[in-house]
Amino acid sequence: MSLESLGWQGLVVLVVFGISLLIATYCTYAERVIAAFLQDRVGPDRAGPWGLAQPLADAVKLFTKEEFFPSGANKALFIFGPCLAMITALMSSAVIPFGSFLKFGETVVHLQGIEINVGMLYVFGIVSLGVYGIMIGGWASNNKFSLLGAIRAASQSISYELAMGLSLIAVLMMSGSLSLRDITLQQSVPGEWHFWNIVKQPLGFLIFIVCAFAETNRTPFDLPECETELVGGYHTEYSSMKMGLYLFAEYVNVFVASAVMSVIYFGGFNFPFQYELREWLSASRGFSADAAQNVVAILGVVAVFAKIFSFIFFFMWVRWTLPRFRYDQLMRLGWTILIPLAIFNILLTGGLITAGVIPEIKQWW
């Protein structure tokens, strides 16, 4: 790879990190607006027009609040916990393909931070590390409620990662690749825009989205920070921006989970009739091949973010609709329902592939 290409990809990585932070910041605003809409009340409307400056006001508040360290806490780990949670959340977005590529003469810019052939495994591994930030923060706080929240987070993460990993094995069996870009391209067969994995893996998607709620500690699986039982859970003793890092990390994880579901099951940056549009721009509108590709690539970015925002809305809708599980119900769902269903889905996928019902992957790209 040339130095110019490395420079462009470095810029893409910075843009991806910036977008992740911006979306996480305004997810706090969206959460309040959606909650107000569902509860038929007025949401944030004081800071800026329509309350759009509310996230900035919240950030100023968190940065200017007093730093607090509980007595008996391990100060180094108390600071390291929220930092680790935020770093791992941001790292997982680096391998997600947010678009195909832009072409400027001889320069090709892939709209993905880093392309590695084990991208799915990378995301799964980094997400698994995120629970260490919660465990370290809960233990270092020297508070029984924080420790209980950290233990809950660890056991919940272990339980639901198994079902999530098994649901992804079925996708791997069909795609033959762990690369998120390859999986996306396999869903973009010309003339077959309905070739998305959600059509071939509806049960796998259902298992994955339930596990995504548990992995991001969102309602109805927010037992690690259950206010009615544990005050605030693992971040009970946190204040100022250290607590802000935990809150932002949760929203970044929601964004990443939504992006992964969009890429693996809903075609990622693919959209209906994209190849027909590119040919029409070249043949009827006088666009050059590079210009037509760039237009389609930009529309692909719009398509993938539309899918991501739809999932983020679903996360928030569920939070303000469903009640919280009891902890025994949460563990029973993971071990006795989701894991057996995921194993059944693997066997079913293998049988369908062997019988030729699921066609072979078209390596046309």
TrEMBL record:
Localisation per UniProt entry: Cell membrane; Membrane
Catalytic activity field: a quinone + NADH + 5 H(+)(in) = a quinol + NAD(+) + 4 H(+)(out)
Example of a GO MF term: NADH dehydrogenase activity
TM segment ranges: 6-29, 77-99, 119-141, 162-181, 193-214, 251-275, 295-318, 330-358
Any one biological process term the GO annotation gives: aerobic respiration
InterPro entries reported in the protein's UniProt record: NADH_UbQ_OxRdtase_su1/FPO, NADH_UbQ_OxRdtase_su1_CS
Superkingdom of this protein's organism: Bacteria
KW Translocase (keyword) present: yes
Main location: membrane
Group of enzyme by EC: translocase
Residues in coiled coil: none
Entry's Gene Ontology cellular component terms: plasma membrane
E.C. designation(s): 7.1.1.-
PANTHER family associated with the record: NADH DEHYDROGENASE SUBUNIT 1 (PTHR11432), NADH-UBIQUINONE OXIDOREDUCTASE CHAIN 1 (PTHR11432:SF3)
Quaternary assembly: NDH-1 is composed of 14 different subunits. Subunits NuoA, H, J, K, L, M, N constitute the membrane sector of the complex.
UniProt xrefs under HAMAP family: NDH1_NuoH
Family: Belongs to the complex I subunit 1 family.
Main function: NDH-1 shuttles electrons from NADH, via FMN and iron-sulfur (Fe-S) centers, to quinones in the respiratory chain. The immediate electron acceptor for the enzyme in this species is believed to be ubiquinone. Couples the redox reaction to proton translocation (for every two electrons transferred, four hydrogen ions are translocated across the cytoplasmic membrane), and thus conserves the redox energy in a proton gradient. This subunit may bind ubiquinone.
Protein name, per record: NADH-quinone oxidoreductase subunit H
Source species: Hymenobacter ginkgonis
Designated gene of the protein: nuoH
